[in-house]
């Protein structure tokens, strides 16, 4: 018999709702702790820059049991995603379980020696409370704490009226109107903000980036939705994955010339379509060597604006602030009214004691997580949404369903601590040696191995569902509704008091 648990879900975003629903569906008591005053995580309106939209098409950015509205565009805007998440929380009676404006300050093992954790919480009124939980699901994801950059001359720059903002603080297009905007970063958020600044009437817009990277347009060749090329098993199988046998290695060796030609063809198409040569933004890296979760989608209008100098693109980084200017590492000096730091977020679990963090993260930043979800040295705890992907919602939902069964000892393939550690070591070797690009985001990136990751989780869960026609399966993107049916076929159980 599975005992009912008191579960804390940290975070009221995509992953938090997936975890809360999965645990509640198995009869557990849930509390969702959210440090903000609103739900949505990265989709909270106060954190969203103007015109933000998903990188993934809406049928890849949805829960298995709820499609996005037909009225939504192929790539929904931030406010639409927020509305979708709000409706999902309502549908599953999750809103009442959320404690808003409540932050986890610390967590440690329960002092009564019972299984679980004691959390130190900062309440909405600023007071501190403590609460014990049998299990904790960390759903803060990888876009939680904004990355900072402290340089000399900041105070003088601000004293002359300059503003320094993280990209999450660029939430009003009027920030740019009539001002000189300098954006630091090469991510999609950086190019989105640069384009928005131009369209919002900025006096000047400069983008500062380290190296050009391959960017994928929404429609490759202007015709084919990129999901039909990059999110299919046939493309995934061009990459050698982990744990493969001699036969698979031989097949990869035989197919190597064809795979090489495939990537060179895609590079040529992207150079032509995006006019990378004219923009002086042709990457040095082969496209296949850098495919991971950090490959950005090309912001519509970005490359034309670079080509006609509406956006001035500078390779390098910020070196220092000097009066009303920013001096770059290459010596260029750019006058600025607003500096937007689109430099990402800190990856970590700051409320976890250092002794446990050392068990979770190696010295080189690689995470020690079995299936990117659980660590055998951190009992009664797991992570949902750390398995980063362009199929974010589906990844979170599968991880959540895996985690509740792992917590309850109900996986069809329940791993032993030794099996988990051996697998973790194998995956660390793969990320560090066989495919270093897989080490991005602390090794928590699923791409380009979405299907293999999903297959492993479903096999562990013990689904009885069958795939579609093999040919259709090989050449079509993941079907969220089908994965919902697979999950529903797993052995049912419910926790008892």
Automatic annotation (TrEMBL):
EC number: 1.14.13.148
Keywords per UniProt: FAD, Flavoprotein, Monooxygenase, NADP, Oxidoreductase, Signal
One Gene Ontology MF term: NADP binding
Signal sequence coordinates: 1-24
Presence of the UniProt keyword Oxidoreductase in the record: yes
SUPFAM superfamilies: FAD/NAD(P)-binding domain
Species name: Bradyrhizobium valentinum
Family: Belongs to the FMO family.
Name of the molecule in the record: Trimethylamine monooxygenase
Family matches, as InterPro entries: FAD/NAD-bd_sf, Flavin_mOase, Flavin_mOase-like, FMO-like
Top-level taxon of origin: Bacteria
A Pfam family reported for this protein in Swiss-Prot or TrEMBL: FMO-like
Keyword Signal: yes
């Amino acid at each position: 018999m599975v005992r009912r648990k008191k579960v804390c879900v940290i975070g009221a975003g995509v992953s938090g709702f997936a975890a809360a629903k999965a645990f509640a569906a198995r009869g557990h008591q849930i509390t969702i702790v959210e440090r903000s005053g609103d739900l949505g995580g990265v989709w909270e309106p106060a954190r969203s820059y103007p015109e933000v939209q998903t990188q993934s098409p809406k049928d890849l950015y949805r829960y298995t049991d709820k499609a996005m509205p037909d009225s939504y565009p192929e790539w929904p805007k931030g406010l639409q995603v927020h509305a979708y998440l709000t409706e999902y929380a309502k549908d599953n009676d999750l809103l009442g379980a959320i404690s808003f404006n409540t932050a986890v300050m610390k967590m440690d093992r329960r002092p009564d020696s019972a299984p679980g954790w004691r959390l130190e919480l900062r309440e909405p009124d600023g007071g501190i409370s403590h609460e014990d939980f049998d299990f904790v699901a960390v759903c803060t994801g990888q876009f939680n704490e904004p990355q900072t950059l402290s340089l000399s001359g900041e105070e003088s720059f601000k004293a002359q009226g300059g503003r320094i903002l993280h990209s999450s603080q660029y939430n009003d297009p009027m920030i740019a109107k009539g001002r000189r905007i300098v954006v630091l970063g090469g991510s999609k958020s950086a190019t989105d903000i640069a384009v928005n600044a131009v369209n919002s009437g900025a006096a000047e817009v400069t983008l500062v980036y380290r190296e050009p990277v391959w960017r994928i347009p929404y429609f490759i060749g202007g015709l084919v939705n990129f999901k039909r090329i990059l999110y299919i098993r046939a493309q995934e199988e061009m990459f050698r994955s982990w744990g493969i046998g001699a036969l698979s290695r031989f097949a990869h060796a035989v197919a190597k010339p064809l795979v090489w030609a495939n990537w060179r063809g895609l590079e040529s198409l992207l150079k032509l379509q995006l006019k990378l040569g004219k923009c002086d933004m042709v990457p040095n890296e082969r496209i296949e060597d850098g495919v991971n979760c950090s490959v950005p989608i090309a912001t519509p209008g970005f490359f034309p604006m670079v080509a006609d100098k509406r956006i001035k693109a500078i390779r390098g980084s910020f070196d220092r602030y000097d009066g009303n200017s920013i001096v770059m590492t290459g010596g260029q000096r750019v006058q600025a009214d607003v500096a937007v730091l689109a430099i990402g977020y800190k990856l970590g679990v700051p409320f976890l004691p250092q002794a446990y963090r050392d068990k979770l993260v190696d010295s080189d930043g690689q995470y020690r997580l079995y299936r990117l979800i659980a660590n055998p040295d951190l009992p009664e705890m797991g992570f949902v949404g750390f398995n980063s992907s362009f199929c974010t919602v589906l990844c979170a939902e599968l991880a959540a369903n895996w985690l509740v069964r792992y917590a309850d000892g109900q996986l069809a393939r329940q791993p032993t601590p030794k099996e988990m550690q051996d697998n973790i070591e194998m995956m660390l070797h793969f990320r560090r040696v066989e495919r270093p690009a897989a080490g991005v985001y602390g090794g928590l990136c699923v791409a380009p191995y979405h299907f293999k990751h999903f297959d492993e989780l479903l096999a562990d869960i013990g689904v009885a569902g069958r795939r579609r026609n093999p040919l259709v399966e090989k050449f079509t993107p993941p079907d969220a509704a089908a994965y919902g049916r697979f999950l529903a076929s797993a052995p049912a159980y419910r926790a008892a008091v």
